[in-house]
Amino acid sequence: MVKQRPRINVKPEDTDGTYSNLVLVAFSRAEFVMDFARMMPGASAASLKSRVIMSPHAAKALAEQLSKQVEAYEKKNGALADSREQSAIGFNTPGNED
Fold first, then answer.
1. Domain, as residue range, for 64
2. Model's pTM, two decimal places?
3. Main-chain dihedrals φ then ψ at residue 29, nearest 5 degrees
4. Residues in CB range of 19: below 8 A, 6 or more apart
5. Is 89 a member of any domain?
6. What is the spatial order of strands in the sheet that 32-38 belongs to?
7. Which residues of 49-84 are buried (b: 16+ CB within 10 A; e: fewer)?
8. CA 30 to CA 64: how far, in whole Å?
9. 70 domain residue, yes or no
10. Predicted confidence band at 81 (pLDDT cuts at 50, 70, 90)?
11. pLDDT digits over 32-64, tens only?
12. Which alpha helices (H) appear in the chain, and where do they start and end?
């Protein structure tokens, strides 16, 4: 049996999305909490843009889908560099020039 993708109603004002360059993940026995934030050059702290809370099963399904999508992206566009080799979120700040 093939699962159908759920239909999602999207309001026009939500179609722009929200940019995030930092994600912090925490979990309890019952849920995963993902804080999507934006860190700007020179800022002392990131700004929370969205908090997503999901069940462990949904979080695992998300991780699997992200893995598949990154693999497809790399097949089409070439391998991504290991993010641990990049400076913090790609910003060059004084004393952090690479």
1. 19-39+46-79
2. 0.74
3. -60, -30
4. 38, 49
5. no
6. 22-27, 32-38, 47-54
7. eeeeeeeeeebeeeeeeeeeeeeeeeeeeeeeeeee
8. 19
9. yes
10. confident
11. 999 999 999 889 999 999 999 999 999 999 999
12. 56-77
